[in-house]
Each structure stands twice: as C-alpha cells, then as structure tokens.
Amino acid sequence: xxxxxxxxxxxxxxxxxxxxxxxxxxxxxxxxxxxxxxxxxxxxxxxxxxxxxxxxxxxxxxxxxxxxxxxxxxxxxxxxxxxxxxxxxxxxxxxxxxxxxxxxxxxxxxxxxxxxxxxxxxxxxxxxxxxxxxxxxxxxxxxxxxxxxxxxxxxxxxxxxxxxxxxxxxxxxxxxxxxxxxxxxxxxxxxxxxxxxxxxxxxxxxxxxxxxxxxxxxxxxxxxxxxxxxxxxxxxxxxxxxxxxxxxxxxxxxxxxxxxxxxxxxxxxxxxxxxxxxxxxxxxxxxxxxxxxxxxxxxxxxxxxxxxxxxxxxxxxxxxxxxxxxxxxxxxxxxxxxxxxxxxxxxxxxxxxxxxxxxxxxxxxxxxxxxxxxxxxxxxxxxxxxxxxxxxxxxxxxxxxxxxxxxxxxxxxxxxxxxxxxxxxxxxxxxxxxxxxxxxxxxxxxxxxxxxxxxxxxxxxxxxxxxxxxxxxxxxxxxxxxxxxxxxxxxxxxxxxxxxxxxxxxxxxxxxxxxxxxxxxxxxxxxxxxxxxxxxxxxxxxxxxxxxxxxxxxxxxxxxxxxxxxxxxxxxxxxxxxxxxx
Length: 582
What we know:
Blueprint: E1 15-18, H1 23-33, H2 37-45, H3 52-59, H4 75-87, E2 92-95, H5 100-115, E3 121-123, H6 136-144, E4 149-153, H7 160-168, E5 172-176, E6 190-192, H8 208-221, H9 227-236, H10 238-247, H11 254-268, H12 273-281, H13 291-308, H14 312-319, H15 323-358, E7 367-372, H16 379-390, E8 394-399, E9 403-409, H17 416-422, E10 429-432, E11 436-442, H18 446-461, E12 469-472, E13 474-475, H19 483-489, E14 504-511, E15 516-518, E16 522-529, E17 532-538, H20 545-549, E18 553-564, E19 567-579
C-alpha cells in the first residue's frame, strides 16, 4: 500500500493499545498514598511505582533526590583542570551551541566560572557560517586569542579533529556533552557525558544544560566558596536547566523531573532581567508555569536568534544584569521569532506545493524538496511540518547554485539515518539519528538523490505496518471521571517526553446533542455515558462527526477543566473515536 496521505484522502484508522492493568498493585498503591484508583492504575501500568521509594520520588520530586555529580565519569579530572586554570589565571573559553539547550548551558557554565573568579571567553557557533559543533577555524581563533583551556557545553563528543588541533595549539579541552559519540572519542582532558558507552549514567538522560549543572555543582563542592552561597547559586540556575531540558525534549523522568518541577517555578520567579523581559514580550500571564510556556513561548524566541541571526543575542539576554538591555534584547528576539515564522510560512507554502505535485506520482514514498534561497535555519521545522501533514519522511533543502543543505524528519518505524547511509554515495556529508538528520549534497545531484532515497523507502515500506498506534493508559468508567481524579492527575505534572499526559479510554458513549463542527474543523458536542454527561471537544477531529451521528462510540480523551463565568466543569478533550466495540 502506498504510504503517503494526500490532503483529500481518508484519514487512516489508528490502533489503540491499552496498557495492561495491575489491579492488585494499583489498589495497594492507592491505599498507601491516598491516590485515586485510576491514577494508581495508570502509574503501575507505566512501571514507575515498582516500590514505595520509587513511588515517593515520582509523586513528590525533591532536590535531595539529585545524585552526586561525581557519579559522572571524568568529572573529577574536569574539575581539577578547571580549578588549576582559575588558580593560575589561565584564559578559559566556553564553547557552546546555538539552540536553547546549548545557550542555557553556556550561560550556566559562564556564570559558575565568573562566580569562581574567572573571566571566560564565549564562543557560540553561527548556524550558517560555522555549522554544527566545533569548528577548526574557531579553534585556531581561540588559540590566537591566548586561551589555555576550552570547556565545551552541549557539544564536542564527536569533535575528534578539532580537539586534536586544539592539542597541537597547546590548548586543553574539557568536553561536557550528552550526545552519542559517532565513533572514536576525542583526546580531551576529560569527557563528561552521561551517555558514554564506557560510563553510562543511568537512569536519567540529561541534556546539555543538565550536564553543565552537574559540572557546576562539582566545581562548587571542590571550591572555597561557602556552602550557602554555592547553594543559592545552584538554585538560581534551575530556570536555565528547565529551559534547556524541556526545549531539548529529553525524558521528564528521574532527575529531569526534579529539574523541571523546580525550574518552572524558578522561571516565574527568576531574578534574570532577560527572562523577566522575555516573559513580558511572550505575553504570559499565568500564575503557574508549564512545559508549554517553554515549548511555545520562551523556547522559540530563544531559538530564533540561532536560526535566523546571531545566537549570542540569546546568551546575552540570559546573562545581562541591565533591565534596559534585557528589554531591548527580548524585543529583538520577539521580532526575530516573528520573522522566523514568516520565513517558515513562506517555505512551508512552497514546500506543500512541491509535495502535492510529487504525491501525484504513485511511487512517491519520501518527500525530497528544495528551494533556491530558502533559509537554512528553518528548513528543519519545514521538514517536520511536512512529515506531520503527509505521514511520510520528508527532507527539505536550502539550495544555491552549488550545494543543497537541509534537514530530514521521519515517521515511526523508518530510520532516516539508515536511509542516508544507504544513499551516502550521493551526499557530501550527513549525520543524525533515526528520527531526524542533517545532510549536504551537490545541487545538481538532488534529482538523483531523490530517486535513490525514494527507492530505499519504497522497499522498506512494503514490509512495514503503517498503522499508527496510540498508547492508552487506562480504561475508565463514566463514574470515575470526577474532580478527585482530575486533582490527582495534576500530581503527575510536569508532562513531556517520557512522561506524557495521561490518555483514557471510555466505551459506549453517545451524543446527547448533535455533533457540530466549530472553528477550523473542531468537533464539539455533549456526550452521555451511563448516568453522566460531559461537554466534549476534539481539535481537528471534524472527520469523526459521522462516527458520533451513527450511534454509540468508544473514545480516547483527556479530562480538562473548563471555566466560564466563574463556574468550572469537567470537559473531555477528545483524541480519537470509533464505533463502539460493544
């Protein structure tokens, strides 16, 4: 079956996979912790509450649950070399990255070095001019400016040639990173990385700023700074750690859950003039913070600097002490984000036209699209949008007369990095992982590459089951949808990667009012289930209207609080629906 989905084709039915219930364990957990039985069932099904200690640490994350930083391999050596440089007045350079994780990690590392008496140079590569990761010309520039030590943040684990060159120039390098090594490890003084194959730091997948926090913690423990001052500094960095952790989409479990739970409050109460100004221009008025504040408000504005302009703008926003400068930078980032959206919209519009043309062919299994003059900083977003829209892997390339550079995004079950390896003879460079990758090729070879990767995808899709699986946490009865359940569900926040918002199944509901389409294809109605009735809305689920008109239906949903004229009620946000199974 052809895998692509044109705009006018029917929506493919989804497979629902309900987590197996562990009723005996759930009853015990519910009694011990005073939890709603549905929440206890959900937590046991996810496997998080294996014992009382595990349950307590998840339900009540506390800073004391953070592990010793010295569990990270090479952190002792990294700390010793850094303290040596500080003691001897050697010049230190912090080498960061241009995304939110990289910029927050840079700000945190610079902050702790300044606290300990250092005056580090800061290098954040330019996405267009320097490319990703460490850059040989940048290393040589750092040497020319008299630096003795480079500390990388959120990068460096694959910079074998660059770190070798630094060594030739008599510069020591400490790598702090979280990415997987592509192969050979660089010859650095220390490699601080929780994902080192020879020293895995389980069970938390820290991001770059999380590793930087650990490094800062270790430096302060071995410094002469007072314990209270060190503690206050670390607490003040939790806003940065939450920003990078959510933006980098690492699992919000273990230590990351602690970081984000405390870091979200730290954002709303931040002392950083830049973050306060960014909250203002983001027009965020809530009394509590959620990961969505980062994902849709702060994160895109911080990222906009690295996508379309100079990433050091975001760094300076996070580190300035001047409220006027902070306001100016926040406005600039907001303007850049608006510009980014406009560029993205133009590229997406042109990409969709190309995609629709390609999908007229019956043999199109992967979208490979390019445009002259497209902005390299936003093509990755465009690839993601096309993948969501058409349910096929998408590669979007910014082209000039000589070269095409861009990003690839994939669908579940299809390893886009393996596809690039298989088609590597047509590429100048590539890298990434199963879901996303970057690549470069000669513009003249774009048609040849398109055919090659499409042939590869066709062969793989012929043996793949393309049915989308929706993972459901628990089946519930109408009587279990109460304010008590809703209240206990709030204890599971913050939600995100690794800790998704719970999703429930309820069977044999029927429409108490005729289902209708509102807004942009949103489905709205009142549902009756047993002796209960609920208002329900399904965003972009207008295609399910006939399902509810023709009889009883089984639904997937999340409970929501709906407030109107001072009165609150429980509403169901629909995720999927199908004719009742019984």
